[in-house]
Amino acid sequence: MGFRRGLLGCLGCGGDDYYEDPEEQSPAAAAAAAGGPGRRRRAVMNLRSLSLEDLSRTLATTSLHAFTLDELKAATRNFSASNFLGEGGFGPVYKGSLDAALRPGLAPQQVAVKYLDLDSDGVQGHREWLAEVVYLGMLSHPHLVKLVGFCNQDDQRMLVYEYMPRGSLENHLFKNLLASLPWSTRLKIAVGAAKGLAFLHEAQTPVIYRDFKASNILLDSDYTAKLSDFGLAKEGPKGDATHVTTRVMGTHGYAAPEYILTGHLTAKSDVYSFGVVLLELLTGRRSVDKRRRGREQNLVDWARPYLRRADDRMLDRIMDPSMESQFSARAARSAAAVAHACLQSVPKARPRMRDVVEALEPLLALDDDVPMGPFVFTVGAGAAATEAAAVVAANGARRGRRGAGSAAGQVACQVGRARGEPAAQGRPLGEERREAAREPPRRDLRSKEPWKLLLHGMCI
C-alpha cells in the first residue's frame, strides 16, 4: 500500500480504529467548521492526509524544528551508549545537546531524542509518531512536555523533547530504593498532572489522553509534572456524540473498566486513570503487582474498601509506609476521597478533571498537622557529636530500625569522650517521637460524602 497512503488514517477512522470522523465525510461539513473554534480541528484533520514531505511545511507556523538525521547524530554523539536514557514502547531514548553550532539560531538546551524502532512497531509506530507530532505541535501548556522538533528523513522517525532531568514518576515511586518522595512533592505532582489533563479535556478540540500512567508523567528539576507520550491520544467526541468508539489500547491496571469492555472512550476514562495514579502516589504500590497475593495484586480492588471509610484507620492501612507518617492526615484523607471519586464504576459519577484540580490544589497549603520528625538532643558533646548523632538518627529513622536513638547517643558519647568532654545527655528518641506524633483533634467525616465535602471545601 505504501507508507504515504498508510498515513491517511493515522489519527482518524483508518487502521484498527472504528470511530468515523464526521469532518472527513463531506467538504460541506469541513466548510461549516470554518469558524474560530474549529481552527485547530481543521489543522488536525488536514495533517491526517499529509505526506511526510508536506508535514514540515505545515508545521512551519509552530516552533517545531525539522531535524536531519546527521544533526541528531551530532546532538547525541552518534546515539552513544553513554547518552542512553532508557527504552519505552516507542523505542530507545537518548540524551542530546542542541546549540547554535548544530544549527544557527538554535538556543542551547538539553533534549531527549526518542528513536522509533520501525522493524518492531510497523504501522502502529507510524501512527503514534504522527499523533505526537500533531498534538504536541499544536498544544502548549506548562504541564505538557515540550516537543522541540522531529525527524522524518528517509525511513527514520524521531521525536525531540525537552530534557526532563528527574525522569518519570514511575522511577521515583517504584525504582528508587534510596529515597522516598515526600508528601508535599507527591501532592505537587498530582496537582500538576491533573492540570495537564484538565487542559486537554477543555481544549477547543478536546483531547482524550488514553494512556495516563506513572511512566508517562515526567518531572523537571523542581518536580513539576508534565505529561508525555501522546501516541495513543484521540480527539474527543463531537456534536451530539457522547463517546468515541475505538480499539481498546492502553496499559493494564490504568484503563477504565467501561473502556475495556465496550471500547467507548470518554474524558471520564482519563479521570479513572488519574484516580489509579493518585492511588499509587498515596500507597506507593503499583497498579498491578503480580508479586503480591490474591486481591492485593490489583491496587484498585485492594484499596477500594478502605477508601470508602475516609478515617484514620483507612490512612493506617493504605498510606505509603516509606513516608513514615510524615504527611498531613487531613490532606491525605481529602486526596483519598478524590481518588475514590475518580475510581467510581459508573463514568458519570466521576468528577471532571477541573473539579479534581479545584479539590486537590488547596491541599498543598495543608501542613499544620504534619507530625514532626524524630530528633536527638545532645548536651556538651560539641558540634561534631551533634552532627554525628543527627546523621545516625536520620539514617535509623529512614530505615525503620528500632534503637536509632540509643545508637545516636552512643556515637555522641564516643565523640565526646574522644574530645575529653562529659557524656551527652538527652531524652529517649521513642519519647520524642510519641510527643511529636500527637495531632490536634479532627472532625469526624465518616457520616458525610467525601467528594461532596471536597467540592464545598468542608474537608479542609
Automatic annotation (TrEMBL):
Kinase found in the keyword field: yes
Enzyme class per UniProt: transferase
Domain Protein kinase: 79-364
Known EC number: 2.7.11.1
Region (Disordered): 417-445
Main localization, broad class: membrane
Keywords, in A-Z order: ATP-binding, Cell membrane, Kinase, Membrane, Nucleotide-binding, Serine/threonine-protein kinase, Transferase
Name of one Pfam family that matches: PK_Tyr_Ser-Thr
InterPro entries listed in its UniProt record: Kinase-like_dom_sf, Plant_Ser_Thr_Prot_Kinase, Prot_kinase_dom, Ser-Thr/Tyr_kinase_cat_dom, Ser/Thr_kinase_AS
Top-level taxon of the source organism: Eukaryota
GO CC aspect terms: plasma membrane
Biased composition annotated in UniProt, kind: Basic and acidic residues: 429-445
Cellular compartments annotated: Cell membrane
Single Gene Ontology MF annotation: ATP binding
Keyword Phosphoprotein: no
Family recorded in the similarity comment: Belongs to the protein kinase superfamily. Ser/Thr protein kinase family.
Known role: May be involved in plant defense signaling.
Protein name: non-specific serine/threonine protein kinase
Organism lineage: Eukaryota, Viridiplantae, Streptophyta, Embryophyta, Tracheophyta
